[in-house]
Amino acid sequence: MKPASWTYAEQFVAEDDVLAAARARAEEVGVSPIGAGGGAALRFLASVLDARAVVEIGTGTGVSGLWLLRGMRSDGVLTTVDIEAEHQRLAKETFSDAGIPGNRARTIAGAGLDVLPRLTDGHYDLVFCDGDKREYAAYLAEAVRLLRPGGVVAFDNALWHDRVADPAQRDDETTAIRELGRTIAENEALVSVLLPVGDGLLLAKKVWKPEA
User: Fold this and answer.
1) How far is CA 141 from each of CA 79, 129, 138, rounded to the nearest angstrom?
2) pLDDT digits (tens, 9 = 90+) for 95-144
3) φ and ψ at 71, to 5 degrees?
4) I want to staple 37 with a disulfide (CB 3.0 to 4.6 A). Which of 10, 41, 162, 188 is the partner?
5) By the 8 A CB rule, do 126 and 120 touch?
6) Of all residues in the chain, what percent are helix, strand and coil, respectively (each to 5)?
7) pTM, whole model, 2 decimals?
């Protein structure tokens, strides 16, 4: 794909002033939020799923959370987890600026792998992962448990700055993301797709199986 076409696709759904402000906050605190194309994909996915309950690992300053909330049902609740409480405070500002009612975003300060095991099995429509890349495999295991049949797990940075496709790149984060993709692709209980939006968005749907 030519750079001009990629840019055109990334900017196809324009971001508003609230998202621009959230990105400015992210730059100030050293957070790298999902790109506009990936955010638009998350909103679309939440809308298609008619999502009422969503989990997010990696709150940041609320960029991805706001995209998700804008795609969810009007009564939907986002549970967003981040180890940095200050980032979550900034995310709450983002949600407030966007007119999102306070009861629609539940922020939990803590490490993803400490929080996820405490959440309810089979309760969620969508799980979005943008935390520690080395923990992506563990996030997947938790997400499969948390999702209802037909629910979707999404991973940002699935191309990891063009490193995943380069077999010469063998650092811990790149290797973890590459192995995650292989695990998902080989899992017959998941239907997957890798979208080349932003830095790569890997999606996997939990296949519905009739109870025995």
Assistant:
1) 18, 12, 5
2) 999 999 999 999 999 999 999 999 999 999 999 999 999 999 999 999 99
3) -100, -20
4) 10
5) no
6) 45, 20, 35
7) 0.94
